[in-house]
Amino acid sequence: MAGRIALAVLAACAVGALVIILVTAIYVWVDQTGAREDVGPADCIIVLGSAVWPGERPSPSLAARTARGLALYQAGHAPALILCGGRGTYPPAEAEMMRRLLTAAGVPETALFLDDSSTTTVENLQHARAIMRAHGWQSALLVSDPFHLPRASLMARDLGLTVRPAPALDSPTYTIPRQRVWYTLREALALIWYTVLERPGLLAG
Q1: Whole-angstrom Cα distance, residue 155 to residue 141?
Q2: pTM value surpassing 0.85
């Protein structure tokens, strides 16, 4: 009996060690990959949403993503921006908040295309894909926080999109060390969840 218990404990420790090694490896990969950009000419720029704060204010992450999209547009990398994100805890919808920021910065309304109903990254990209198809666009620059881009890029490719990553490297959720660690760890776990549980269904669909 004691021998069986000892074996069970050893097996549990071994499994735990393997899980820690796996999560650590994915964490490092997310952290390193997320900071890489591949910016060039594209048909459009997809900006993934982030939270809106009370008082109809963009969260620092949303502001950073919007600023990155604006910089890419102003640099002439693409003539249109697809703004993704529905309403969260506070109004307005994330896409609408980005629209306000971009029009205030001088971007014409005709260059902005809103997905203001999605609530997940997969929905963001599915709705962006519909907008791209409606306009005959083939390629996109994908904007988000660095830690979010590896999973988002994988999702985009699984949906048949041709995207190139353009991380918002100055987002406070990335530049503040404790937030970077927390969000990168969360993304590592989310990537495992997506790969094991969500991706098979998405590919099958």
Answers
A1: 14
A2: yes
